[in-house]
Design brief:
Elements (H helix, E strand, L loop, with lengths): L9 H10 L7 E5 L12 E2 L9 E2 L3 E4 L13 E8 L14 E5 L11 E4 L3 E4 L2 E4 L9 E2 L10 E3 L7 H9 L4 E5 L3 E7 L3 E2 L10 E2 L2 H12 L2 E8 L3 H14 L2 E5 L4 H14 L2 E6 L3 E2 L5 E5 L2 E6 L3 H20 L9 E6 L3 E2 L5 E10 L10 E5 L8 H4 L3 E5 L5 E2 L4 E6 L1
Parallel strand pairs: 5-6, 13-16, 13-17, 14-15, 17-21, 19-24, 22-25
Antiparallel strand pairs: 1-12, 2-11, 3-10, 4-6, 4-7, 5-9, 8-9, 18-20, 20-21, 22-28, 23-27, 24-25, 24-26, 26-28
Length: about 425
C-alpha cells in the first residue's frame, strides 16, 4: 500500500505552495458601482481634493473666529447677520469683521469666515445674532483637501473593495476602475461511486457534494468556479480532465476518494501535468491528512480528500489562500474571528493540528449587555456534511497541545 510522504504542518505546507505561485496580472475595467468584493489592479489617485471647498459640519452661523473670543452665556457677543448661505451654490457675499451668516450642514463657507458657531449656541436679537460660546479657527468645518489631497493614493493596488471604498471612489467621480480578473478555478470530482447531485443514488452511490461546496467557497473568496465533471477512478480519464482544466483555468482542485489507491492516482496525475508537480503529499492535520498540494508550471493543483468535511475544511486552509495569492491580496490581512469559551474538553494527538467545528451561543442572560460567547464542539465524522452545516466556525488545536479544556478561551474562525 502506498505510504504518505513526510507529513508537513499546514502552515509550512501552505507557504511551500504559495511560494510557487504568482499573482495574476490580468485585469478588466468595470463600473465602480458593481465592484464590491473585487480587487483593485492599480493604485487609484485622487483626481482632485476632497472636499473641493470648505464646508460646514453643523447648522449654525459662519463667523470669523476672532469675533467670538470671550463670548459666553453670561456675556454674549453680537454679530450682524448679513444673509444665508444657499445650499448647493457659492455664497455671493463675504464675512467682514462683526458679521455672520446662517449656514446649514454641508454648506460652502463664505470668504472671510473661518469657523461656524453651532445653532444651539446662538439666538436672534433683532438684526443681530447673540453668540453664546466662542469658537476656534477651523471649528465645525472641513477644510479643502482635509479628507483627500489631489494626487493622493486613495486606494492601493491589491485592495479588496468594501462599501467604504466604493463610496470614496464615487465621491471623487471615479465611476470606472481596473480590477483583477477573477481567478478561474477548475473543479474535478472523482470516484466510481459519485453521481451528480440531481440524480437519485443507487445502493453504494453518493451525490457529488464537494463540487458545490468548493464552488461556493471559490465564489466567496473572489474566484470563478468551473466544473469539469465527475471522473472515474482511472488515471487516463482523470489526467485528461485535469489537463483540460489546467489549460483553461488558473488553478485546479481534484477531490478524490479516501482509499490509498485513488490518492496515489491523484498524485500521479499532478506529477504528469507539469513541473515541479507534487510539492506536499500529506498534511499533519485532522481532518484532511490525505491532502496533496502541487504546482504545475506556475499553477496550483490541489488534491483534496473525498470526504465532504475534510474537503471543505482544507478548502479553507489551502484553496482560499491560493485564490487570495492570485488576486494579489496580502496574506497577513485580518480574518473574521472572535473569542469564546469552550464548553467541553477536546482531546488531540500531540504533534498534529486539529480543526473542530463549533456552534456559538451567548452566555449572557436576557437583558445583559456585552459579548460573552460560548463555543460548543460538534462531533461527527469527516463524511457527514451536516456537522459543518450546524457550525458557526472552526477552532484550531495547535500541534504542541494534547487538547483543550472546558472553560478555556479559544479563537473561533468564522465560516
Amino acid at each position: 500500500m502506498p505510504e504518505f510522504l513526510t507529513l508537513l504542518p499546514p502552515d509550512l505546507a501552505r507557504e511551500k505552495l504559495l511560494a510557487a505561485l504568482s499573482r495574476l496580472e490580468r485585469a478588466c475595467v468595470i463600473e465602480t458601482s458593481s465592484a464590491l468584493g473585487r480587487v483593485v489592479a492599480d493604485d487609484v489617485l485622487a483626481p482632485h481634493s476632497l472636499p473641493e471647498f470648505p464646508r460646514s459640519t453643523v447648522d449654525g452661523y459662519a463667523v470669523r473666529a476672532r469675533d467670538t473670543f470671550g463670548a459666553s452665556d453670561s456675556l454674549p457677543g453680537y454679530l450682524k447677520q448679513i444673509g444665508e448661505v444657499p445650499m448647493g451654490a457659492s455664497p455671493r457675499f463675504e464675512i467682514r469683521p462683526g458679521e455672520c451668516a446662517l449656514i446649514h450642514t454641508g454648506g460652502m463657507l463664505p470668504p472671510g469666515a473661518d469657523a461656524v458657531v453651532m445653532l444651539e449656541y446662538t439666538q436672534p436679537a433683532g438684526e443681530e445674532i447673540e453668540i453664546l460660546r466662542a469658537v476656534a479657527d477651523g471649528e465645525n468645518l472641513i477644510r479643502v483637501g482635509e479628507d483627500v489631497q489631489q494626487g493622493q493614493v486613495v486606494v492601493r493596488r491589491g485592495t479588496l473593495l468594501r462599501p467604504a471604498e466604493i463610496g470614496g471612489l464615487m465621491a471623487l467621480g471615479i465611476t470606472e476602475l481596473r480590477v483583477v480578473i477573477r481567478p478561474r478555478i477548475g473543479l474535478i470530482s472523482s470516484g466510481d461511486e459519485v453521481i451528480p447531485a440531481d440524480q437519485t443514488p443507487a445502493p453504494g452511490q453518493v451525490r457529488d457534494i464537494n463540487a458545490h461546496t468548493l464552488a461556493a467557497l471559490v465564489q466567496r473568496a473572489g474566484g470563478e468556479a468551473r466544473f469539469y465533471g465527475i471522473q472515474p477512478d482511472r488515471f487516463e480519464a482523470l489526467q485528461a480532465a485535469a489537463r483540460q482544466a489546467l489549460e483553461e483555468c488558473d488553478a485546479v482542485v481534484i477531490t478524490a476518494g479516501s482509499s490509498a489507491s485513488t490518492r496515489d492516482i491523484t498524485a500521479q496525475v499532478i506529477d504528469s501535468l507539469g513541473t515541479p508537480g507534487v510539492l506536499v503529499h500529506g498534511i499533519n492535520t485532522k481532518p484532511g491528512k490525505p491532502t496533496i498540494l502541487g504546482a504545475c508550471d506556475g499553477k496550483a493543483v490541489i488534491g483534496l480528500p473525498g470526504n465532504p468535511v475534510s474537503a471543505l475544511v482544507n478548502g479553507y486552509l489551502f484553496l482560499v489562500p491560493v485564490i487570495e495569492k492570485l488576486l494579489g491580496l496580502p496574506m497577513d490581512r485580518p480574518r473574521p474571528t472572535l473569542l469564546a469559551r469552550l464548553t467541553l474538553n477536546l482531546a488531540s494527538q500531540a504533534g498534529r493540528e486539529d480543526w473542530w467545528p463549533v456552534r456559538l451561543f451567548s452566555a449572557l442572560q436576557p437583558g445583559e449587555r456585552g459579548e460573552n460567547w460560548l463555543a460548543e464542539p460538534i462531533f461527527g465524522k469527516s463524511n457527514l456534511i451536516f456537522t459543518l452545516v450546524a457550525a458557526d466556525g472552526l477552532i484550531k488545536i495547535p500541534p504542541d497541545a494534547t487538547g483543550l479544556s472546558a472553560g478555556e478561551t479559544v479563537e473561533v474562525f468564522l465560516m
